[in-house]
Design a protein that fits this description.
The chain is mainly alpha-helical. The protein has one domain. Helices cover 82% and strands 0% of the residues. The protein is built from four helices and no strands. The longest helix is centred in the middle third of the chain and has 23 residues.
């Protein structure tokens, strides 16, 4: 159950970050509201997960997964630049996440 809640927290963190992009500096009302709603849900999920997981593992996975997913979404949906350095860096983040999960 803790992995499901952590996964939901990661999804809502990613949705919050995407909403930030669409909020355009808090000039767009609905995306601006969604930033707070999605981040609130994400942080609440993380708080619940911390009852069952070590903070270093839970937060590490939450933060790095969100970072890797946003980088990939930025490339695919927002047409951000792709470079070998970016691909290698995202790969290293994913390897780090797997390392945290495998050796937990």
């Amino acid at each position: 159950m803790k992995w499901l809640i952590l996964s939901l927290g990661i999804v809502f963190e990613v949705l919050g970050t995407i909403s930030m992009k669409y909020a355009e500096g808090f000039t767009k009302l609905i995306p601006s509201i969604l930033v707070f709603v999605f981040y609130g849900i994400s942080l609440a999920a993380l708080v619940f997960v911390l009852q069952k997981m070590e903070v270093s593992i839970a937060y590490g996975i939450w933060a790095s997964s969100g970072t890797a997913l946003i980088a990939i979404i930025g490339i695919i949906f927002f047409k951000e630049t792709v470079s070998i350095t970016k691909i290698i860096s995202i790969s290293l983040i994913i390897i780090g996440i797997l390392g945290l999960e495998i050796f937990d």
